[in-house]
Amino acid sequence: MSDQAEALRELVRARPGTVDARAGARSILFTSGKGGVGTSNLALNLAIALGDYGQRVVLVDADFGLANLDLLCGISPSCDLGDVLVDGGRPLADAVVTGPNDVRIVAGAHGMRNLADSLDAGTDRIALELEALESECDFLFIDAGSGLGTSIAKLAAAAEQVVLVTTPEPTSVADAHAALGRFRRGSETPRLRAVVTQAASAAEGKDCLTRLCATSRQFLGLVVTPLGSVRFDPAVRQAVRHRRPFVCESPHGPAARGVRRLARTLIEERQPRVGRPGFFSTLAARWSLGKVAR
Fold first, then answer.
1. pLDDT at 20
2. What is the mean pLDDT of the chain?
3. Which of 198, 211, 214, 276 is deepest in the core (most CB within 10 A)?
């Protein structure tokens, strides 16, 4: 284990409340304006990097129909979230698999409706099991896929933060703005963050973030805060082919270093939650009260 990782663990241990289970998990939803920008890969590898720093992470694959976290991680779950959500289905524990650094992954369903719609028709048993899982972690990640569907806004309304992933390509940035536009129409806007992946350099990543955040404020009236950028790394494609997270396949590469920087930022920002309900309890309450637009 690197000296840097151990130093950060010491910093976390020295800050009371930052890893206190009673503080509750920080819920972060990952989405993008279009596919192919690396949203799932970022969520997975960031979760593993946080685990390397001693954080307890649960990662939920909510990109139904296009769920691929199991492929990226090289796991073959015998049960997925679709089996759990079927009325009278299997317990949630059957769909939870353990990945690198003890990251717990809730395997997503292939070829089904999205998580938001499935939860809408689900049972109280599922909500209780999800809440119990969330209560045992420091970070809850929800990989929601592309952000142009109405269901993403439903999930985002229950999250503390939404991380929008884009690349520097003009088409990707344009689609990111389109995804952000959905949050402008919502009654409640979560904290919006942005991450640029596949940047040719640190300067390109920073410039793309600056422009995206500035134009979002100017034309959409939305405050988007940069989280950071991850540089292009040919090892990422190789890791996908090998079905291994790139932070494990190429731990010293530029992409892995960038993800670890993002992980350190999230840890440093993490503060104890006071009186705020968890992601799944908030989501369930909105459904039962009919406060989420259908």
1. 46
2. 82
3. 198
CA 243 from centroid of its chain's CA atoms: 19
Domain assignment present for 267: yes
pTM of the full predicted structure? 0.86
More confident position, 18 or 159: 159
Tokens linked to 198: 């596949």
Structural domain containing residue 237: 24-60+96-104+139-275
| Cα–Cα distance measured from residue 227 to residue 176, given in angstroms and rounded to the nearest whole number | 15
Determine contact, residues 162/191, Cβ cutoff 8 Å. Answer: yes
- Asked if the model's pLDDT at residue 175 lies above 90, the reply is yes
Give the pLDDT mean for 256-261. Answer: 98
Q: Is residue 111 part of a domain?
A: no
Number of domains in the chain: 1
Q: Which residue has the higher pLDDT, 4 or 161?
A: 161
Q: What is the percent of the chain with per-residue pLDDT over 90, rounded to a whole number?
A: 50
Strand partners, 225: 193
Query: Following DSSP, what letter does each residue of the chain receive, concatenated?
Result: --HHHHHHHHHHHTSTTTT-GGG-PEEEEEEESSTTS-HHHHHHHHHHHHHHTT--EEEEE--TTS--HHHHHT---SS-HHHHHSTT---GGGGEEE-GGG-EEEPPPSSS--HHHHHHTS-HHHHHHHHHHHTT-SEEEEEEEETTSHHHHHHHTT-SEEEEEE-SSHHHHHHHHHHHHHHHTSSS-PEEEEEEEEESSHHHHHHHHHHHHHHIIIII---EEEEEEEE--HHHHHHHHHTS-HHHHSTTSHHHHHHHHHHHHHHHH-----SPPPHHHHHHHHHHHT-S--
Q: CATH no. for residue 165?
A: 3.40.50.300
235 domain-assigned: yes
